[in-house]
Every structure is written in C-alpha cells, then in structure tokens.
C-alpha cells in the first residue's frame, strides 16, 4: 500500500498541526491511524526481500529479513510524531529501492 501524494500531505499536515499545538508525542489515535500503514510497509519490505531480482544469497536474504524485523520491532516503541513520520518515509524509500532490484546502501530501514 503506497501512500498517495495527497495522503502523505495530509499525514504530514497532521504532524505539523500537532507540533504547532506543542504536542510532539503520538496519541493513541495517531498510533492506531499509522498501524495499518506500518504493517503494510513491513509486509511489503519482507516480500521485496524475496525477489529473485536481488543479488542476495540465501543467508544474506535471511540476514536482511532479520534486520528488517528488528528495525520494525524497535521502531514499534517509538512515540514521537516526527520520528514516526521519518521512519515511514525511510521504509517507503527502502521499498522503492528494493523494487528496482537494488539493495539500499545504508541499513535497510
């Protein structure tokens, strides 16, 4: 599920509006709103790592999947609106690089 430009605009506006009010921590509503999107990105990244277009051995593929799982697991504890938006942007960028058959130069996510 890729976010449309308008959807990205609205999610970024929500972050900016919350920051303008002085609230920089995610509420339960913010977390539930991002949950489906993050789960979708997680599944897409894992699926993309299975692509035969990637020049990875079986062990390297398992290593990259473990890296992605650990990053998403650590990121699931994040409560800052800005950090959550940044993590989603990085995941979408990594997914776009993986879909081109390339491996991101820096850590996966």
UniProtKB/TrEMBL annotation:
Domain LYR motif containing: 30-98
Domain of life: Eukaryota
Name of protein: COMPLEX 1 LYR-like protein
């Amino acid at each position: 599920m890729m976010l449309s430009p308008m959807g990205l605009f609205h999610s970024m506006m929500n972050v900016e509006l919350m920051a303008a009010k002085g609230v920089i921590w995610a509420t339960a509503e913010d977390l539930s709103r991002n949950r489906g999107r993050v789960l979708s990105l997680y599944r897409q990244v894992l699926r993309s790592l299975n692509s035969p277009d990637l020049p990875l051995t079986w062990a390297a593929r398992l290593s990259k999947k473990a890296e992605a799982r650990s990053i998403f697991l650590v990121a699931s504890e994040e409560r800052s609106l800005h950090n959550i938006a940044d993590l989603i942007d990085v995941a979408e960028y990594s997914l776009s690089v993986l879909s081109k058959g390339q491996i991101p130069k820096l850590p996966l996510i």
